[in-house]
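step=encode ok
step=design start
structure_in=
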């Protein structure tokens, strides 16, 4: 069984053929997908999709959405987490974090939303899904100040030292399509050097396409799609297996165990043959 630990199935890129995307994922052996919200307006939609397709979900406000978010959205998140605390498909608070790559975003506001959502995760005893982009040290600082019950550092691309610091705080690190690019030297070195217990798989679909889906700007202008989807996960896993020296069977077993460790509620869903 493959688990996609991060996929935005609610994204508009999937509106035309979402059911077919799910069908292809299951045909490829991807039986569980975690759908993180990125804004308060998405909470109900993400929850509905998770139940409709028997997947799982997380609720949070993305750092790139904080400029449009209202302070009242934090109260809305708290209320939603409380209302659905008995829902076995609600696994985490996320996608939350910090993004110091995109210019023009109020860093103080990002920090505020990050800290407040860590507090909510701790209050509701949930792990977190972290957005990490040029922000690892500040994220770690926040986690040391407001400890939570671990989670996943999504699309991690920091140093080995930073990676091990997240691991020491109970986190696993998410690897996806970028792993398949030979020029992604830092990510591939990390994937090789980390402990077996630190690695989970993700697609971040429709984003972060693997190398075989990559399109140049000119190709996109010609109408060629670069959309990623969960059915690509086993091929991404094959790249990880090659880097680690694992078989595909080992890769599936190890990454599944790591995802269950990062997201304990997910164990309640794995007896479901379709997820």
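sequence_out=
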């Amino acid at each position: 069984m493959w688990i996609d630990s991060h996929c935005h199935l609610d994204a508009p890129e999937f509106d035309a053929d979402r059911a077919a995307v799910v069908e292809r994922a299951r045909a490829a052996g991807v039986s569980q997908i975690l759908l993180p919200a990125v804004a308060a307006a998405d909470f109900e939609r993400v929850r509905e999709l998770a139940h409709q397709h028997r997947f799982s979900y997380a609720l949070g406000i993305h750092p790139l959405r904080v400029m449009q978010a209202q302070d009242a959205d934090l109260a809305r998140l708290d209320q939603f987490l409380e209302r659905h605390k008995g829902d076995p498909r609600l696994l985490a608070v996320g996608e939350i974090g910090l993004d110091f790559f995109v210019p023009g975003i109020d860093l103080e506001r990002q920090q505020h939303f990050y800290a407040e959502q860590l507090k909510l995760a701790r209050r509701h005893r949930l792990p977190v899904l972290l957005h990490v982009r040029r922000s690892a040290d500040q994220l770690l600082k926040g986690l040391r100040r407001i400890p939570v019950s671990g989670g996943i550092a999504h699309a991690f691309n920091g140093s080995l030292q930073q990676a091990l610091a997240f691991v020491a705080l109970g986190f696993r690190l998410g690897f996806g399509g970028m792993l398949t690019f030979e020029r992604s030297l830092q990510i591939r070195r990390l994937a090789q050097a980390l402990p077996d217990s630190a690695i989970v798989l993700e697609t971040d679909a429709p984003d972060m396409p693997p190398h075989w889906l990559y399109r140049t700007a000119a190709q996109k202008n010609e109408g060629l799609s670069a959309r990623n989807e969960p059915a690509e996960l086993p091929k991404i896993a094959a790249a990880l297996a090659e880097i680690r020296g694992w078989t595909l069977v080992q890769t599936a077993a190890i990454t599944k165990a790591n995802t269950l460790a990062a997201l304990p509620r997910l164990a309640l869903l794995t007896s479901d043959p379709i997820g």
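step=design ok
step=annotate ok -> Strands lie at 2-4, 30-36, 56-59, 90-99, 128-133, 151-154, 171-175, 199-201.
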